[in-house]
Amino acid sequence: METLFHQMTICGVGLIGGSLATVAREKKLVGRIVGLGRTQPNLDVALERGMLDMATRDPAEAARGADLVVLAVPILTMRETFGAMLPYLPDDAVVTDVGSVKGWVVREMEPMLKPRMALVPVHPVAGKETTGAAAAVRDLFVGRRVIVTPSARSTPEALAKVEELWRATGANVERMDPDVHDRILARVSHLPQVVASALAAALGEEQVAGRPVLEFGAGGLRDTTRIAASSAEMWRDICLTNREAILAAMKLFARDFAEFERLISAGDGEGLVRLFERGRAMRERLK
Amino acid sequence: METLFHQMTICGVGLIGGSLATVAREKKLVGRIVGLGRTQPNLDVALERGMLDMATRDPAEAARGADLVVLAVPILTMRETFGAMLPYLPDDAVVTDVGSVKGWVVREMEPMLKPRMALVPVHPVAGKETTGAAAAVRDLFVGRRVIVTPSARSTPEALAKVEELWRATGANVERMDPDVHDRILARVSHLPQVVASALAAALGEEQVAGRPVLEFGAGGLRDTTRIAASSAEMWRDICLTNREAILAAMKLFARDFAEFERLISAGDGEGLVRLFERGRAMRERLK
Hints:
2 copies of one chain form a homodimer.
Chain A: E1 5-11, H1 15-26, E2 30-36, H2 40-48, E3 54-56, H3 59-63, E4 68-71, H4 78-85, E5 94-97, H5 103-109, E6 118-125, E7 145-148, H6 156-168, E8 172-175, H7 178-203, E9 207-208, E10 211-212, H8 219-225, H9 232-241, H10 243-266, H11 269-286
């Protein structure tokens, strides 16, 4: 395959950015890969693992020559990161991102672009609870869903090339409206995160008769709270940039949680079976 | 090892009862194993898998000759199951159970015992989301916690023999007050179940822009709702027999969930990081 871009500059060489760099380098999808980072130790890991041709903490150096910029930093730092690179970028660079919220990215990034630049907002649905370049793996995206949410500033050519890049990672690429994306992800991703983190926070310091209850946690507690280990800063940004949709999703959960409270208080066995069965039915459909 | 009991009658040959039968037979911990069941197909599976010397749906037949009765049926059917066997049991039988709630078992079962019978309430903390004799495995209890909650009707001899039986399965056996047990398990087991089931119920039928949101569920949703596949009847009984402790545990969760709502509504980024970090800290301690 011919290379899709001459130079891909990845801003934020973490789990997603680092995994994209790894597979792009291995498959020669781009000519050259530059990593922009905040901390040298993480960039050193990326260099040692052979993900990058060059690593830098200088936005100007990272920007020069990049015909593709991948914003893989926490959502709320995208503007600042991109703003620092902008004066040094080629006038027709393609700008893409991997943020978990898309409406915000479209609204905030579009006005920053130079006239000939193109924006292709992307969400690779492939998180893990681990972070950093050390967690990156070449097959992270194989068989995973990658959602592209075109904006008014997505040119057909830029869309096609960015989608080709993601397809080459082994991902299943599809297009969606940014706000539909945000409402769906609020339900199946952001809500479970808030629920898992609230459960973990509630039990972390809890004691009964002088014994920390966590000593007695078994597989169910472990599974239900696993994603609470995820990056607090990443999730802060998701909560702040997708507020309305997340609050709406939380209401859906709160309704059924309150129904459990009511049924248990009332000792309503039949109602409890019906509600637990609704949960079981969801698991059947999720398979 | 000498056998601990002449005949162990297991009432309810499901995941726990069937696994106990499997290991007890393999290690010759008891002389003879009888299974009492409600449905013939499940008993047939148990017989085919070599767990039992005899299977029956007749409580009288199951009771005769049993010096150990293991109640492994849903908690709210224990009284009825035991009542049907009682006239046919040896006068000095040892009665034990594997229920996930212990205060209720002590309060309800003690008054039913004949004068020379002994009660040893036990909770093997070894659930899975699968059910039935088909799911039983010999190593289910290896390295798992088995909590014995002595009652006024636990004789030292009966306690020692039942604990010896459980230790021989590879479990770590410890003693605890029944109400302390119930308050701890309400937090680390019953609360996560209610949270997972409420989340699963809330999302099961949910659509956005005509698309079922479950299509987009990834690893986080899968983990967080895995235990929602558990038996609705078993969990109804746990909710009905440990009401106060579960409602108290739900209040702990509801407080932090409401705090998330408040912080997201207010756009309080620092507060969100602190709350997510509390969840992360719990996961560090759970390791």
